[in-house]
Amino acid sequence: MEKGKLVISNDPTIPLFKNSGRVFLITYPEVLERHVKIAKEAMVEVISRFELPLKVMLQEDMPDEILNRIYCVFEESLIAGWKMDLYGMQAHFSDGGGFDFENFAFLLLVPDRFTFKERKAVYGNTVPGDFGIVRAMDMYFRGTIIHEFGHLLGRYGHCKDPECIMGYANMDAEWFCKECAATLIKIWGK
């Protein structure tokens, strides 16, 4: 893979960051510490319950130049100063942004004052296997983290099971259904 090029595979069996074992939780300024704590706990729970070979790392563990680039790309992708464009960020990363998604993936927590350009995205949005953005809101926050982390881990699309956390707008669901759990287990080799 060419360095600095974001490659998104439609093959859900190979998230690019799988071998690195690193997933970062990054917070944009203004995000409350309690949201960071809930997000980290939810991500660690998923990792633990699925016995994934991953470690949640905080932004303090990320090199400053990469962290600053993520912030810059996020800000450059804003429309009208507050509307987030996930696919605009993806385009910035793929245009030689110096990112090697074989080495890490990340979830970016942002204040709830931001909204998504994509109409269907309310609480969060993710490019599976690479990065995601989650609005730090009290409503359904834990469920949103687990849902978007499921996408980050390689679960494409949404589940039709109304009791599954991977269903569209099922953020109050407790956990993954058997089918979605089996998909993640298959992807991660357990």
Structural features, described:
The protein is of the alpha/beta class and 190 residues long. The chain has a single domain (22-188), classed as Collagenase (Catalytic Domain). The protein has five helices and seven strands. The chain has helices spanning 33-50, 64-76, 86-94, 141-152, 178-188; strands at residues 22-27, 55-58, 83-84, 105-111, 115-116, 124-127, 131-136. The strands form two sheets. A five-stranded mixed beta sheet has the order 2-1-4-7-6, with helices on both faces. Strands 3-5 form a two-stranded parallel ribbon. Helix 1 links the parallel strand 1 and strand 2. The longest helix is centred in the first third of the chain and has 18 residues, at 33-50. Residues 1-13 have low confidence and may be disordered.
Which CATH class applies here?
Answer: Alpha Beta
Structural class: alpha/beta
Stretches where pLDDT falls below 50 for ≥5 residues? 1-13
What is the CATH homology-level superfamily? Collagenase (Catalytic Domain)
Estimate the global geometry from the Cα principal axes.
globular
Strand order within the widest beta sheet = 2-1-4-7-6
N-to-C SSE series?
Answer: EHEHEHEEEEHH
Count, helices: 5
